Structure formats: C-alpha cells, structure tokens
Amino acid sequence: MSISPALRSATRAAYRDVLRAATLTFAGDRPVLQAFRAKVRSDLSQTLVVDETAVQQQGQFLREIAGVLRRNVVQATKVDAAEDGSELYRIRLTKDTELGDNDSIKNPPPVESSRGQRHQDGQAHKCYIEESFVRGSGPGGQSINKTENNVQLLHMPTGARVSCQEMRSLSQNRKLARKWLLEKLDQLANPGLSKENMKAAKQRERERQRRKKAKKKAKKKEAPQRMEEED
Question: Ranges of Basic and acidic residues compositional bias (predicted)?
C-alpha cells in the first residue's frame, strides 16, 4: 500500500520536531543528546512501516515524545556546595517547561543530590549493625595477639556477618569490615548484579577480547607462512 506524500511529510516533520526538542532539553549535555539521537534513529530504522495507519501512529508517537521532552524533562546544574558539605544542583527550566501554581515550583531552590541522601541513609542503617571487638590471633606479635583489634560486624536484619583482622590498626580494620559488609549485603540484595559481580563480568569480557585479538593476530602471522609453504 502506498503512503501519501502529505503523510510522509508530516512524519518527517514530527521526526525533526523530536530532534529539536532534544537539542533544547539536553543543551549543554552533548553525550546524552548524541545518545538520544542515535536511539531515535536506530528505533525508526528498525521499524518497517507498510500502511498509512502505522505511519500515522508513528508520527503521533514522535509528537508525544517531543511534547514530553519540552514540558516534563529538565536538567540540573551543579552549584556551590552547602555549608554541611552536601552537593546542590539548580534545575534549568525553559519556556516550555510545565509549571504548577506553587511559587517554589516556578522558582525552584537548589536541591540536594542523591549522594547526600545515600549518606544519610547509610547513617540511619548504622542502628541495624552490631559491632564487637575481640582479641586477635595468628602471626603479628603482641600488636595482634594482645589487643582487641579483630572487628566483627553483624547485620541484624539479614544475619550477614563479617570479621576483619587484616591490619594492626583497629580503625583500619573497622573501615575494611564495613566495606566487606556492604559488599556482602550488595550480593544478597542484587544476586548476579552486585558491584563485585559487575567488576568480574567486565574483567571476563576484557580477557575474552584479549584472547580474540591474540587469536586474530596469530592467524595473520600464519597466513603468509602457509602461502610460502604452498609455493
């Protein structure tokens, strides 16, 4: 079924409208803008449109995306840190941004970053950790065997427990124990997707790429030798 030139023109206009809306919304953030444009082009190139109804739906969908970008998506820029050390961001609004009637929305104050919120959450979760110190054992002399520098942490909600005696310093052992406990809780909460799992997956991918390159290089070296042998 043929598609009318007017409908094609309207769809192309909707596509250009999405790109213009993205340029306005993601101004100053070129990586995000380029990624968005590439995603739109990729999705449209993979979509096979064969009738006018589908073309109309595609054009309507593009116009809706452009509207959302203009009215409902905003960016934030980092401003000076607050007195307590937390990071603050100021929201950048445009003339098309959808605003409410509240003055605090029309003139938004700087908001605290999620990093500061995570720090507050971490402080709140300390009440769920039971910490104890016991006398160390093993090699290390009196600094290990006659001092209570073995740090043991118990996360009461999950029952996760860690013990650290890596350093002679009690404060260093406390830091390490908390790090290990966080990693253990991450694995419990995100099986297969924890930070350590992702690091291991990246390392495996790097090793796979290295082996692939080495194999390809070896094949290139073997090719001239085979030609000489055949001659």
Answer: 196-208, 221-231
